[in-house]
Write a structure and sequence with these properties.
This protein has 90 residues and is an alpha+beta fold. It has helices at residues 10-15, 17-27, 46-70, 77-89; strands at 7-9, 31-35, 38-43. It has four helices and three strands; from the N terminus they run E-H-H-E-E-H-H. The longest helix is centred in the middle third of the chain and has 25 residues, at 46-70. The relative contact order is 0.09.
């Protein structure tokens, strides 16, 4: 992130919305919008947002899997394939 270039006051957004949208879609970097010197919003292009959401989903799945492993909630590879074969036979 180019922090100096990616933080703008809300007045900048109001007066240059089209430029902001063009910038975030070209650079794929989010822009932080401030109001009275405080960060109030983050604007991001749709593709980057979707990629971020997908990454978060994968991290959640990994976290669940790690918890299952810690708790011994696992099955052997052989058991899994045997179960799949049984389901396919039906």
């Amino acid at each position: 992130m180019h922090i100096v270039n990616d933080i703008k006051p809300v007045t900048y957004l109001k007066s240059r919305a089209a430029d902001v949208l063009k910038h975030i879609n070209e650079t794929h970097r989010p822009m932080i919008i401030t109001q009275n010197g405080e960060a109030k919003a983050v604007i991001q292009d749709p593709k980057s947002y979707e990629d971020m959401r997908n990454a978060i989903s994968l991290l959640k799945l990994l976290s669940i899997a790690e918890e299952d492993i810690k708790n011994g909630n696992t099955h052997s590879e052989e058991d899994v394939f045997d179960s799949v074969e049984e389901l396919l036979k039906k």
